[in-house]
Design goal:
globular, two-stranded antiparallel sheet, mainly alpha, 6 helices, 179 residues
Length: 179
Amino acid sequence: QALREGIEMNYGTVTYFGAVLIVPEFLIPLFPVDLPSDKWPTFCGAGEGAGDALISDSPWGVHFNPACFTHDIDWAITPYTVSEFIRANWHFFRNCLSLVLASKKSRWRRFLALLSCLRYFAGVSTFGLYCFLTSDAIPFDDGDPFRHPVVRSRLKRLARADMGLADEIAARGGYDGVS
């Protein structure tokens, strides 16, 4: 039983600097595959403020923001069921792992970043479970993910870093002032 409604998402992959990432299909044409990792805005962390300060966006020099961005959107618009919770976290872990394996960091730094993948996965699967079970998330079932405020806010933040994305969003009619 879903704790809140959502939309069923289909997934595809994008290749981001050698990392193959699982993303919702509707994001594929907007995903900034050529935006350098150090230009991504922050998406990692447990909410705003202190949660963001405690969680590094780039453990051992490997930038996890593309994985965190996708994970935020997964949580925002899919139904709140345990199976969807597990699926979103598994995609997050897999995307972090792919970013590490594709990085050009030393073997030692990649090993330490792999340990961070496990730590982040443990965090979203434990602390995240508490947030998931106590969430009063916005019900979302109108079928258009671009109308969800979390999706709009994440795309808006990303568009500030990638003006090509801002142009693409504007061409699609703009979302929440993203143009």
